[in-house]
Design brief:
The chain is of the alpha+beta class. It has a single domain, classed as Orthogonal Bundle (Cytochrome p450). The chain has 16 helices and 12 strands. It has a 5-stranded mixed beta sheet. It has a 3-stranded antiparallel beta sheet with strand order 4-12-11. A two-stranded antiparallel ribbon has the order 5-6.
């Protein structure tokens, strides 16, 4: 192991200290070049107090894609996080932790509510929320982007889509932050609160069907079967937690880079045709979801390693998004590059992110409105992330947005 990278213990992906390293992309590159599939024993950590049996870490883009698409060998149903969760929590997240045919049935039931045609009917709602956030960003200098944008913009859009009462939105902001954070105790509590709220909302909506996403979900059928209130509650937890934090972090990381690279901001401001490329680059550079786990259903060889049935296989999307064989000069933020192969929403296959079309629209509309209204972005406090092995969340980012 090189002096820069450190010892084997220094690069153990299960150690909390690793996720505080500012040079982890160097470590990921080392793995891609020298050991693309490696085994990491699990040690006790805030997100896994009991430790665990360990897992195989997959770092190269092509290997990540191959595992993701090979659903006959690699399963979702035992959990998608590296550490072990209680099976009650695994089951509660529904379709995320299912294999076909169960997963396909769920997807057919809830998928239409997130189809591009329906989401296009929500563009006015998305645009209104985007402008409300921009109002707050330009209202004062040195604004806290985390509390103003990251924790609110996507959450409120999803809340509007589900026709949640306005007075509940702030509570959802808090639950969302903790549900997918590194603190397991607070995460479990927030997760259960989201499920309980979703259960109650589903029961209430069945008595008052409208044209919102929740109404579409509670009335969705497959061969006469409806989703139960408990199943809908689990889906709400998944939707709010995974769909909100990831989009907010991606937008904020992109804004941070636009502020640090004014030439990129000028390009975008003067050429709106770059917005779609910018969205892909925001997603690639942020890699909001660091990894996803599969479990081997049979003995298999991957990256020169012999993996046994039952072994956990963790796909590092963040590493794949910085793979030099796919993205040249990957550590440079460049909104003119073609980043369409980024795997922030998954690497293909049946588990491609259901909310991808929503997330893209949220980012695109936000940038459309931002370049109309903002002349300059000045970073006043650099972006910092809390140590988190699953999500690239944001702890700090402040900036001044000068209005035109």
């Amino acid at each position: 192991m090189s002096a820069i990278i450190g010892t084997e213990d220094d690069v153990l992906l299960t150690r909390p200290e690793f996720w505080a390293r500012p040079d982890r992309h160097e470590v990921f590159k080392h793995f891609r070049d020298e050991a693309p599939v490696t085994f990491h024993p699990e040690v006790a950590a805030p997100w896994a107090p009991e430790g665990g049996p360990g897992f195989w870490a997959v770092m190269r883009y092509q290997d990540v894609q191959d595992v993701t698409r090979n659903t006959k060998v690699y399963s979702n149903k035992f959990g998608t996080q590296p550490e072990e969760w209680p099976q009650t929590r695994v089951a509660a997240l529904g379709m995320l932790h299912m294999d076909d045919p169960e997963h396909r049935i769920w997807r057919q039931m809830v998928g239409p509510a997130f189809a591009p045609r329906y989401l296009d009917s929500m563009l006015d709602t998305i645009r209104r929320n985007a402008n409300e956030v921009i109002d707050a960003l330009v209202a004062q200098p040195d604004v806290d982007v985390v509390s103003t944008l990251v924790n609110r913009y996507p959450v409120k859009i999803i809340a509007d889509m589900l026709a949640m009462p306005k007075e509940d939105h702030e509570q959802f902001v808090e639950w969302t932050y903790y549900a997918f954070g590194p603190d397991r105790v607070k995460g479990n509590a927030a997760h259960h609160a989201l499920i309980e709220y979703g259960v109650n909302l589903a029961a209430s909506r069945r008595q008052n069907i409208g044209d919102d996403v929740m109404s579409r979900i509670v009335t969705a059928e497959y061969e006469g079967r409806l989703l139960t209130d408990i199943e809908v509650g689990g889906f709400v937890s998944l939707l709010i937690g995974a769909g909100a934090e990831t989009t907010g972090s991606s937008i904020a990381t992109g804004l941070w880079q636009l502020g640090k690279n004014p030439d990129q901001w000028e390009l975008l401001k003067n050429d709106p045709s770059l917005i779609n490329k910018a969205v892909d680059e925001f997603c690639r550079y942020t890699s909001a979801v660091v990894n996803f786990r599969r479990t081997a259903l049979e003995d298999v060889e991957l990256g020169g390693q012999k993996i046994k049935a039952g072994d956990k296989v963790v796909l590092y999307y963040e590493s794949a998004n910085f793979d030099e064989t796919v993205f040249s000069d990957p550590e440079t933020f460049d909104i003119t590059r073609d980043s369409s192969k980024q795997v922030a929403f998954g690497a293909g296959g049946p588990h491609q992110c259901l909310g991808e079309h929503l997330g893209r629209r949220e980012m695109k509309v936000f940038l459309e409105e931002l370049i109309k209204r903002v002349d300059d972005i000045t970073v006043t406090a650099d972006l910092l992330r809390p140590p988190n092995p699953r999500f690239n969340m944001i702890q700090q980012f402040r900036a001044t947005f000068a209005e035109k």
